[in-house]
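User: Run a structure prediction on this.
Assistant: Running it now.
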Amino acid sequence: MAERTNVDEMSAFANVILQASQYGTSISTVLNTYAEEMRTTRELKAQEKANRLPVQMSGVIAVTMMPALLIICLAPMLIRWIRLFGT
């Protein structure tokens, strides 16, 4: 099954079951340990993704906020120029 799916987690699961049966250890203990490792791995992947998110969002925020900030900062100067040179 692990070879057909070509998924690393499935290969690791098959190896865990195979080793448990070869060494005669309790499958429930082995599965509990494997499940804990999988949860830890999944949590670390989620944390890594969450840590990369601010970097990815900074470009989007800069693109969307920069025009509004420029308008807010430059509008008073443009109004003064219009009043100064317009009349």
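Residues 71 and 78 are 10 Å apart (CA to CA).
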